[in-house]
Amino acid sequence: MTFDLLAARVCGAAALAAGASSIPLAFAERWLAFALLLWAVPVLLFLADRGHRIHTRTTVAQPRKDTPSA
Amino acid sequence: MTNSTSRAAQFAAVYAALTASHEVGDYWSQQDRDAVAKGGPGLEGRLACARHVASYTATQAIALAAADRGLRLGLGWRRTAAALAVSAVTHYAADRSGGRWREAGPSTALVRFARRTGHTGWLERDPGAGPLLDQAWHRGWIAIAAAVAAGGGR
After folding, report:
1. Which of A2, A54, B103, B110 counts the highest number of beta carbons within 10 A?
2. Are B70 and B10 in contact (CB under 8 A)?
3. pLDDT in tens, B77-118
4. In angstroms, rounded to a whole number, what is the distance separating the alpha carbons of residues B48 and B54?
5. B89 to chain A: which residues are within 8 Å by CB?
6. A54, containing H or E segment
7. CB contact at 8 A, B91 and B53
8. What CA–CA distance (Å, rounded) separates A56 from B50?
9. Which chain A residue lies closest to B42 (C-alpha atoms)?
10. Is the pLDDT score of A67 beyond 80?
11. What pLDDT is attached to residue A66?
12. Which of A38, A42, A49 is nearest to A9 (CA)?
């Protein structure tokens, strides 16, 4: 597992946790805390997506070791 | 058909589905005991409001799924879930003000917002002002929810 993939998964899990934690705040009508926490969800999802993209790009770009060079 | 046309069609179809199901969910799906208690204080009021929002969101989810399948809108599940979440949370925020629009003094965040934006006189004069502001709030957020569902790449 590359660092990018690990970071992407951590960001994804954090986004899920932030989204889940915001539900009780909305229920309790603590709207400011809810908005502050919810703001983190798209940011973390964006970072997770970036991590996945970088991981995919670097994995695809690396040549296979068993491929004979020309 | 271009991508932008597709998105416009998606937005229009999602907005129509969410608006139609809003009417059904906000009136027919709502239980009378929840309608009476949802604006009340404490855990009882919050639970009543949450029950109403749960049935309301389920109604909207069914309508969106039917529109997506019937019209082949090709909505992504993540954006659909986000759109339903926008609708649900903002609906809860507004409906906690149920029956409290004419309250003087400290009230819900939305009632305070209505007063700060110059609607105090209307709220005091007209018993229908609160429900009208409530419905206008819902429709505005439904449009944003439709944009969330229809936005993004394909």
Report:
1. B110
2. no
3. 989 999 999 999 999 999 999 888 988 777 889 999 999 999
4. 10
5. 26, 34
6. helix A31-61
7. yes
8. 41
9. A28
10. no
11. 67
12. A49
On whether the CB atoms of residues B96 and B108 are closer than 8 A, the answer is yes
**Whether the complex's predicted ipTM surpasses the cut of 0.95:** no
Chain A: which residues have CB within 8 Å of chain B?
26-29, 31, 34
Structure tokens at B55: 């049935």
> Contact, B56 vs B29, CB < 8 A?
yes
* Residue showing tokens 């005991």: B33
- Predicted structure pTM score: 0.84
Of B19, B94, B81, the C-alpha closest to B52 is B94
Token pair in block for residue B121? 């006189």
Q: Which residues in chain B are closer than 8 Å to A31, comparing Cβ atoms?
A: 93, 109
